Amino acid sequence: MHPLAHLDHDYVWHPFTQMKDWLKREPVVLVKGRRSTVTDAHGKTYIDANSSIWTNLHGHSHPAINRAIRQQLRRVAHTSALGLANEPASRLAEQLIQRVDQKRKSGSVRSNRLQKVFFSDDGSTAMEVALKLAYEFTRRTRGPKSQPRFLSLEGAYHGDTVGAVSLGHIDLFHQAYSGLLFRSESVMAPYCYRCPYNRASPQRADARDYRQCHLECVQKVERVLSTSKRQKRPISAFVFEPGIQGSAGMIPQPKGWLRLVTDMARDHGALLIADEVLTGLGRSGLGDNRSSPILGSQREDVQPDMAALAKGLTGGYLPLAATLTSQAIFDAFLGEYAEFKTFFHGHSYTANQLGASSALASLELLDSEHSPSHRLNLEEHLRKALQPLWDQPHVGDIRQVGLIVGIELVKDWTRRTPYDLTEQAGIRVTQAMAKRGVLTRPIGNVIVLMPPYCTTQRQVGKIVTALHEAMEEVL
Predict the structure, then answer these.
(1) Each residue of 307-344: pLDDT tens digit?
(2) Are 305 and 131 in contact, with CB atoms under 8 Å apart?
(3) Phi, psi for 210 (deg, rounded to 5)
(4) Which end of the chain is more exposed for a tag (fewer CB within 10 A), N or C?
(5) pLDDT tens sequence across 154-167
(6) Strand, helix or coil for residue 195
(7) Nearest to 111 by CA among 326, 345, 411, 420
(8) Which residues contact 291 (CB under 8 A, 6 or more apart)?
């Protein structure tokens, strides 16, 4: 075992990891990265098939981002945002708002357009900011005695801070902390593959394409909103991941669903909070007109009141997050000092200069002349490469939204028979993929593929081949 692996075993506690299992084998200790690959302490090179837990956009050690960080290091690495401003964060806020505004379709111009940016550290804190802003905005606009209520989807995951966990509905993750949480409402998610209202028999295709239903999932949202309003306990905010739910198991939404339910929520007076931690910054694909929206919600012309960006914001380099919000929400916190209407929330590393500088470089790469077409080509390469996997009897569903892919493993595709989580089908398959030089991490029995944007067609082929061979070996 490598000396660094010994150090890890002796001192490090890993997130979302059963450490008893972890300590049974030598971990992969990564020491270097270049473009779509990473190299371990023994010199073995792997394709980073999940972009280092969904964060890396342009590849490792990108010269433009490296250069931006080095240039900022010559000036200053960090100063506080409490009572002070800095250049990179100010420019980044401007760039984010300009890009969001430019990508809106003419028909979606509304007074709630995003105009202000609150910086934090990661996806959890970005959602915590949105939650607190929505909570206090509701009390200030509906009266201090109002009880703000939040609606999110079944299987939702919005982060690990206590507020963000309260918005989530994954028992395996959240049940242990139930005594710490406030209650939030949940509503049926559009999980076409396992939807009880989908009357279609299993086919060898994405379940969204052959579903037979009446969009009962939309009716469920309407029912919750109407009931809450009738009981005079209206929903304050609807929280959603646009296009696809990530940690729920890469659950994609059928086309049109997002616009329908957000229009309903808006009509019932609810704020719209878009969790774009996974779906933003081009990850969920181009728009219908081949535009390159910075928010996944913009692909269906949905204008949220708040949007949380993180993960890929710095290109996968440094912890930085942003909560974009409307002028109306910002204005609710304006007042004289003695009124104490300030937003009492903040972080030591808010608006960090190194993070903001890398984010500016990443946004410039996203806007480069060939970036949209290259991402579209990569999306098509993935789609074509995945088609032969339908011949695998343990593949139940292949779900793709842009450059996000989830492959659900099953015991019997003809009956959609799931593996029990204790069988660790997903973990065993990804371990077998690692032996073949491809790294990713499953969500239960769903294999996640989410490569950096610089991944080549040849590397896509190697990723899918490794997955196919790993399923043959393990299952």
Answers:
(1) 999 999 999 999 999 999 999 999 999 999 999 999 99
(2) no
(3) -125, 10
(4) N
(5) 999 999 999 999 99
(6) coil
(7) 326
(8) 103, 372
330, burial (CB in 10 Å: exposed 0-12, middle 13-18, buried 19+): middle
Looking at the chain, the whole-number percentage of residues with pLDDT higher than 90 is 92
Q: Are residues 215 and 86 in the same domain?
A: yes
The bridge status of strand 404-412 relative to strand 395-401 is: antiparallel
DSSP-derived secondary structure for 295-321: SGGGGGT---SEEEE-GGGGTSSS--E
Domain membership of residue 379 (yes or no) is yes
Per-residue pLDDT tens digits for 255-294: 999 999 999 999 999 999 999 999 999 999 987 666 778 9
Do 293 and 322 belong together in one domain? yes
Helix, strand, coil percentages for the chain (3-state, nearest 5): 40, 15, 40
CA distance 243 to 306: 16
Q: Are residues 282 and 151 in the same domain?
A: yes
- Mean pLDDT, residues 124-138: 97
Tally DSSP H helices, then E strands, for the chain.
Answer: 16, 17
| Residue 381, domain extent | 3-62+370-474
The answer to whether 378 and 285 have CB atoms below 8 angstroms apart is: no
Contact predicate 373/415, CB 8 Å = no
Name residue 233's amino acid: R
The full length of the chain comes to 475
